[in-house]
């Protein structure tokens, strides 16, 4: 089962910041500057945590994971936008 996480980060060094951004692009949808929406299985979550542990400086940087629930449940409607509308990614694969 997949859980939806909002992942936000504050990374002090520009080189580490770029590395975290590139890593996060492979795990979720870039929502805002340092914010991603990720639908992850438990194994993938632990993989991402481990990879981030290797990049960040544990005294200077911070990464927050906010669990908003199962991807198929409440998480689908948990993000509200004011101003420009938030368009969630499609919940199914598209074959072209």
The strand order across the widest sheet is 2-3-1-4
Number of strands: 4
Tally of distinct domains:
1
Please summarize the sheet with the most strands. 4 strands, antiparallel
What is the third-level CATH name, the topology?
Alpha-Beta Plaits
CATH class category label = Alpha Beta
**Radius of gyration in whole Å, from Cα?**
14 Å
Q: So how many helices?
A: 2
Oligomer: single chain
Order of helices and strands: EHEEHE
Distance between the termini: 26 Å
CATH architecture: 2-Layer Sandwich
- Helical content band: 25-40%
Structure classification: alpha+beta
Question: Kindly state the mean pLDDT as a whole number?
Answer: 86
Q: Write down the overall geometry.
A: globular
């Amino acid at each position: 089962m997949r859980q939806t996480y909002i992942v936000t980060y504050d990374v002090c060094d520009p080189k580490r910041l770029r590395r975290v951004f590139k890593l996060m692009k492979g795990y979720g949808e870039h929502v805002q500057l340092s914010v991603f929406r990720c639908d992850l299985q438990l194994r993938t979550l632990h993989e991402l945590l481990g990879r981030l542990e290797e990049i960040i400086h544990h005294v200077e940087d911070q990464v927050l994971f906010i669990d908003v629930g199962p991807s198929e449940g409440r998480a689908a409607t948990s993000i509200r936008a004011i101003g420009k509308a938030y368009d969630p990614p499609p919940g199914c694969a598209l074959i072209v």
